[in-house]
Design goal:
This protein is mostly beta strands and about 450 residues long. Helices cover about 5% and strands about 60% of the residues. The longest helix is centred in the N-terminal third of the chain and has 7 residues.
Length: about 450
C-alpha cells in the first residue's frame, strides 16, 4: 500500500493551498480571478520519519512535488470555494515503498439569507499518516506515525440568526469520521506484546457534535452567549484491543480468553458553557467558550465524570499581510494507548478510556519586507491518560515550525522551513524527537 505523508511545516506555515484554512481571508490572487493553480518542488531531510524512540530512528533525504488547484465563487450573498492538493514525496534512503502520497480536499459554503440570518458549511477530507494533519482542530490523539495511513472526513455546518435586535441564536453540527488503514500492528511493543491491537481497533470512530447557543448582543462589538452541545464518540471496530483472562491458566493467552472489541470505548458527553465573541476592530477578534463536560461510557463501569471544557482564541491582523493567532483548548480526546503492559487483563475496566488534554497553540505570520514573509507556529499539548493501568500518566507533545518565504514575482517564490516535533511520555518506548528541513520553489497562477 502506498503511504500518505504530509509535513506539519507544509500544513501550518508554507502551503499556499491551505491559506483558506490557516490564514484570515483570501489572497490577492484568489480574489483577482475565480481559479488558482500552483505547483511546488521541494527537497527535504527527515531524521525520524516513523517517529521511533531514540536509537531506532530512520532518516532520509528526498524531494516532493505538490500540484494544487482551487476555485472560488464569491457572489453578493453566497460564497462557494473548493480546493484540492496532491503531494508525492520520494524518500531516497528507504528500502521499500520510496514514494508517499497525500490527498487533501476542502469545500466551503457561506450564504446570507438576509442581514439577520446566515448559513455556513465546510467539508475537509484528508488522507494522511501525519498526526497534525489528521487532528487540525483539536488535541492530537495519536502523536506517533506508522507505516500506514488514515482517512478522515470532517463536515461542519452552522446556522445563526437574530430573532430581535439583541437576542440571537446559533445551531450547528459537526461530524468527523476516522478510518485507520493499519489492520494489525507491524511492530510489537511493550504496549502491544503480541501485535493484538491495531490502530484501526484503537482509533476507528465516528464523532458527532451538535450544539445550540443563545446569543445576546451586549454591545455593538460584544456578543455574550450560553450554550449546550452533545458529543458522541462511536468506536466502529470489532477488532480486539485486548483479552480478558478467563483461561484455565492465569496470565497465559489461550482460546478461553474473551476479546475486548475497540467499540467498547464508545462514549457520550454533555457540554455546558458560557462565552462570548468580541470584535475590537476589523483586524482584531476574540472568541471564548468556558464550561464543563460530563462524559459517560456505554460499555464500561468506570470512567464517567466531569472535566473542564475550554476553547478560547484570538486573531490580530496587526499589519497588512501580517497576523497573529493564539488559542487554548481543554477537552477529552481519543488515545492510541489501550492501557496495559500485558495483553491479558482482568476486566474491560482495565482499559484506558481516553485522555484529558490542554492544548496551547499560536501562529505568527509577519511580512518582513514586501517580498519576504516569516512564519512561526507552535503547539504545546499536555495529555493525561484516564482510567486503566496508566491512569494519571502524561504525554507532553511539542510542535514547532519556522519558515521564510521570498517572492521573486507575484507568481514565483522560494521558501525554506524547519520543523521540530517532540513527545515526552511517562510511558516507556513512546517518547521521540523529529527534525525536518525543507527548501524549494513554488509557482502560483
Amino acid at each position: 500500500m502506498k503511504k500518505i505523508i504530509v509535513s506539519a511545516g507544509l500544513v501550518t506555515v508554507s502551503a499556499v493551498g491551505l491559506q483558506a484554512l490557516d490564514a484570515p481571508g483570501l489572497t490577492r490572487l484568489q480574489t483577482a480571478k475565480w481559479w488558482t493553480v500552483s505547483a511546488a518542488l521541494r527537497g527535504f531531510y527527515d531524521d525520524n520519519y516513523f517517529t521511533a524512540p531514540k536509537g531506532l530512528e530512520q532518516s532520509s533525504l528526498g524531494f516532493e512535488i505538490t500540484p494544487y488547484l482551487a476555485a472560488n465563487f464569491p457572489r453578493e450573498q453566497t460564497y462557494i470555494g473548493v480546493s484540492y492538493e496532491y503531494r508525492a514525496r520520494y524518500y531516497a534512503d528507504r528500502e521499500d515503498n520510496k514514494w508517499d502520497q497525500t490527498h487533501l480536499f476542502v469545500a466551503k459554503f457561506d450564504h446570507k439569507f438576509s442581514p439577520r440570518f446566515n448559513l455556513t458549511a465546510d467539508d475537509v477530507f484528508t488522507y494522511s499518516s501525519e498526526p497534525e494533519l489528521l487532528e487540525q482542530t483539536g488535541a492530537v490523539s495519536t502523536p506517533l506515525r506508522t507505516d500506514s495511513s488514515a482517512l478522515r472526513n470532517r463536515f461542519t455546518a452552522g446556522f445563526n440568526g437574530m430573532m430581535t435586535e439583541l437576542l440571537g441564536f446559533e445551531v450547528g453540527f459537526q461530524n468527523t469520521w476516522y478510518d485507520y488503514l493499519q489492520e494489525q500492528d507491524d511492530v510489537v511493543s511493550v504496549y502491544n506484546p503480541f501485535g493484538l491491537s491495531s490502530q484501526s481497533a484503537l482509533l476507528d470512530r465516528v464523532e458527532y457534535l451538535p450544539h445550540i447557543d443563545v446569543r445576546y448582543q451586549a454591545r455593538e462589538n460584544l456578543v455574550g452567549l450560553v450554550g449546550y452541545q452533545f458529543g458522541v464518540v462511536d468506536y466502529t471496530s470489532d477488532q480486539p484491543v485486548g483479552l480478558i483472562d478467563n483461561g484455565l491458566v492465569a496470565g497465559v493467552q489461550d482460546p478461553f480468553d474473551t476479546p475486548i472489541p475497540g467499540s467498547d470505548r464508545s462514549s457520550q458527553s454533555h457540554y455546558l458553557y458560557v462565552g462570548g465573541d468580541y470584535t475590537v476592530s476589523a483586524q482584531w477578534t476574540a472568541a471564548a467558550r468556558v464550561g464543563a463536560q460530563y462524559t459517560s461510557f456505554d460499555d464500561l463501569n468506570s470512567g464517567d465524570g466531569w472535566s473542564p471544557y475550554v476553547d478560547v482564541s484570538a486573531t490580530d491582523q496587526y499589519l497588512p499581510g501580517s497576523y497573529l493567532r493564539l488559542g487554548v483548548r481543554y477537552t477529552r480526546n481519543a488515545t492510541d494507548v489501550a492501557g496495559w503492559t500485558q495483553t491479558l487483563v482482568n476486566s474491560v475496566d482495565d482499559l484506558a478510556t481516553d485522555q484529558e488534554s490542554l492544548v496551547l497553540y499560536g501562529t505568527v505570520s509577519h511580512r518582513i519586507t514586501p517580498r519576504l514573509t516569516g512564519n512561526l507556529t507552535g503547539t504545546i499539548q499536555h495529555s493525561e491518560f484516564q482510567n486503566g493501568i496508566y491512569d494519571g500518566d502524561v504525554d507532553w507533545f511539542f510542535l514547532t515550525g519556522v519558515s521564510l518565504d521570498y517572492k521573486f514575482t507575484e507568481h514565483w517564490s522560494a521558501e525554506v522551513a524547519y520543523n521540530f516535533d517532540r513527545l515526552d511520555s511517562d510511558l516507556q518506548q513512546r517518547s521521540f524527537s523529529r527534525n525536518r528541513i525543507f527548501m524549494g520553489v513554488r509557482a502560483t497562477y
